[in-house]
Design goal:
The complex is a heterodimer. By secondary structure, chain A is mainly α. Helices cover about 55% and strands about 10% of the residues of chain A. Chain A folds into two domains: about 40-75 and about 205-253, no CATH class; about 80-200, no CATH class. Residues about 95-110 and about 185-189 of chain B have low confidence and may be disordered. Chain B is globular. Classes of the chains: A mainly alpha, B mainly alpha. Chains A and B meet through helix 1 and helix 2 of A and helix 2, helix 3, helix 5 and helix 8 of B.
């Protein structure tokens, strides 16, 4: 019995396997990747959502600039679009672009002012600037140039709406400036909302989006609005991209 | 992709330390076929080998931060792979499957035609070995462990390691002759 020497035999194996390569199955990496510790879930989505929010914000700005231009170029009749504010809000009328036409907002009921504590300070602040003697003509100081120079029709539209509130207003000090206060109404609300957001902090993606949108979109109905809660759940409750508006009623306060 | 080639294995190691998924994948692509060849020697079949390969890489990516640069990175990877294979063997330790020794002494052996033997052929005969034999054979002959180390790792005595190795050799020789049976006959006849 002739045995090949162990050393030689061992060397045969060692050499043959020294640089041996066998191609693994194609799907093996996918399996490994799956088993690897998943990347911290939050990091990527947050960056994603932040980027998405910025994109939304920019888009919103572009869209608004556009509509503004269109409105300016358009006929006077189209300039004023008076539409009801969110259904549950009895306050009344609101102009699509309150920032450029601060004048047009008018109150239909004076008690709104009395009810809302938030508005009170603003109202007082405005008192100083507008003398009480002007109360009857309150519309004139508020919307002089726009109405006279460029948007005569608007003035006509608006006047009848104002008759009632102005008369009532004369009697109470706090209510005097009702009309003025309400022209600022959207602004006040926005800042109120901002305060709320800041108080709650940004706890999740929904808050983040709300925050960014709030900064950019000053309309009543935001471009996008999320309902958020402490359980880290966000659900979309409102969309407003011009032609498409969506508002979940049960989330409206 | 050419980009792959611009990374040295040490670049990949650093990337893996940072937990970079892309670098992990590249390291895998660069080393997996060699490592599968290692696993195949320790496993009964390809399926088992790929299971070990998978476990090995997960361990590698988890432990890569512990690599301190002693020895080559590839050597370190290989060591983890071998350890994983041994661990897997110990976990599934089948009831002592000892191959009857007399098989090993049945036929005269008059030498091999080394050049005609491919790696795949050798792999086949290795995989046919009983698990214990295969472990000792791989660890001693290919990986270069001492009998003492093998004994400690596998939880057997040094003597058992030695005797299993010589049996493994004998069985392998016999198997190779069988495999080469036809060629061998024409040479002698």
């Amino acid at each position: 019995m002739q045995h090949i020497p162990d050393k030689e035999f061992d060397k045969l194996f060692k050499d043959k396997f020294a640089d041996a390569e066998i191609e693994p199955s194609a799907n093996l990496w996918a399996n490994i990747e799956q088993q690897l510790e998943p990347k911290r879930k939050r990091t990527i989505p947050i960056y994603w959502m932040a980027a998405a929010s910025v994109a939304i914000a920019i888009t919103a700005m572009l869209v608004f600039q556009k509509t503004e231009k269109i409105r300016l170029r358009g006929g006077e009749a189209t300039a004023v679009v008076v539409k009801p504010v969110v259904e549950q809000d009895p306050i009344a009328t609101d102009v699509t672009t309150s920032t450029t036409l601060p004048v047009v907002n008018q109150v239909s009921k004076e008690d709104n002012v009395a009810n809302s504590a938030v508005k009170a300070p603003v109202v007082k602040a405005q008192e100083n600037t507008i003398p009480e003697t002007n109360v009857k003509n309150i519309q004139e100081p508020v919307q002089p140039m726009y109405a006279n120079n460029r948007l005569p029709i608007k003035q006509q539209d608006v006047k009848p709406l104002d008759v009632a509130p102005i008369k009532d207003v004369v009697y109470g000090d706090n209510q005097i400036v009702t009309a003025v206060a309400d022209t600022e109404q959207t602004g006040v609300e926005t800042s109120a909302n901002e305060n709320v957001t800041e108080r709650k902090g940004i706890r999740n993606v929904g808050d983040l989006v709300n925050f960014v949108v709030e900064k950019v979109d000053k309309r009543d109905k935001k471009l996008v609005r999320f309902n958020t809660d402490d359980d880290d759940n966000s659900s979309i409750i409102g969309i407003n991209i011009g032609f498409l508006k969506l508002n979940s009623k049960k989330h409206n306060k | 992709m050419k980009v792959t080639r611009t990374y040295t294995i040490d670049d990949l190691m650093e990337g893996c330390k940072a937990g970079d998924r892309k670098m992990q994948e590249m390291l895998y692509k660069q080393t997996a076929s060699k490592m599968l060849a290692v696993c195949m020697r320790y496993a009964k079949d390809r399926m088992e080998a790929e299971d070990v390969l998978q476990m090995g890489y997960i361990k590698i990516f988890q432990k890569v931060k512990e690599y301190r640069g002693e020895g080559s990175f590839e050597g370190w990877i290989r060591r983890i792979m071998v350890n994983t294979a041994i661990e897997s063997y110990r976990k599934n330790l089948r009831s002592l499957s000892i191959v009857p020794i007399e098989d090993a002494y049945g036929q005269p052996s008059q030498g091999f035609d080394f050049s005609s033997l491919g790696m795949q052929d050798l792999l086949k005969v290795i995989q046919k070995l009983a698990d214990g034999y295969r472990m000792v054979f791989n660890m001693y002959i290919i990986e270069g462990y001492s009998h003492k180390e093998i004994a400690e790792t596998l939880g057997i005595s040094e003597g058992a390691s030695k005797s299993q190795l010589s049996r493994a050799r004998a069985i392998l020789q016999q198997e190779i002759i069988k495999m080469e049976g036809f060629g061998y006959a024409t040479h002698t006849g």
